[in-house]
Fold this sequence. Notes:
It contains 9 helices and 9 strands. The chain is globular. By secondary structure, the chain is α+β, with helices and mostly antiparallel strands. Helices cover about 35% and strands about 15% of the residues. It has a 7-stranded mixed sheet. The chain has a two-stranded antiparallel sheet with strand order 6-7.
Amino acid sequence: MPAHFCGIHAHKPTFGLVPSRGHTPPPAPALPMERDLAVIGPMARSATDLALLLDVLADPDPQALGIAYRRVLPAPRHEDLRSFRVLVLDTHPLVPSDAQVAGAIDRFATQLSKAGVAVSRESPLLPDPVESTRVATRLLFSLFAANWPPAMYEGMRARAVGLDPADLSLHAERARGAVMSHRDWLLADAARMQLRQRWQQLFGSFDIVVAPVTPTPAFAHDHGTDPFARRVLIDGTPHDYSDQLIWAGMATAPGLPATSLPIGKSDAGLPIGVQAVGAMYEDRTTIRFAELVEREFGGFVPPPLVAGSGRHA
């Protein structure tokens, strides 16, 4: 998401590929461990730099897996852009995409087609995006809630108890996920594994899934509002602040790699990016796709200088 908002490249690795020792947030100790859903990866102006940085970062932790394992990632599936088979998504059934985000993705899909890339706009192999989002939301808010103060956690528990069982909205799933039992977490984890299997089947027919990173370009900072009360406008309509996470969860929940790459700007001059999602442990394929797109269509563009200051906006 930071890369999308800033017009640069970034890579979210396959879960567990890059050791997170020393980067885990409290209350987790700074020991060799992997926190569910959490990954760390490089950000750079150039997609080529992502490949170099991943090579530096991805060796197994010498205090953990590195004792017995060595990194051997598959080579990119293709070395030329036109060989890629790409599925393009631009909006979600639960949360719409801002018209400028959807428009930028549509133009990008057209560019790819004109460059000889096999582009599809739908596929029956795609895991159900509504089911995927509900599973990802429950898992994510279970992780978030581990750090909440007791009063905040109990307030969410009371909210979850009062939910109508028929309410399957994201608002309801966030509350349920935050306070779900270990038994329910295991059921959600099993659903995640089923989603992962469906993604593996999809990547037998496609090399890359292109999707939004968030439904909107960057929005104004607001550190003074309760995140649960905050709203973000999508084409003038207010949506829950947490709706911004809907696309990130698509790759994060099943542990897939995703490379963020810039594809254009909004009418206000704000960057718009997409994520290129790939099969598990095929990080080199998503990064190579971003490199080839950068070579073919361009990539990072420095922001304009502030008049008279010598500084970028």
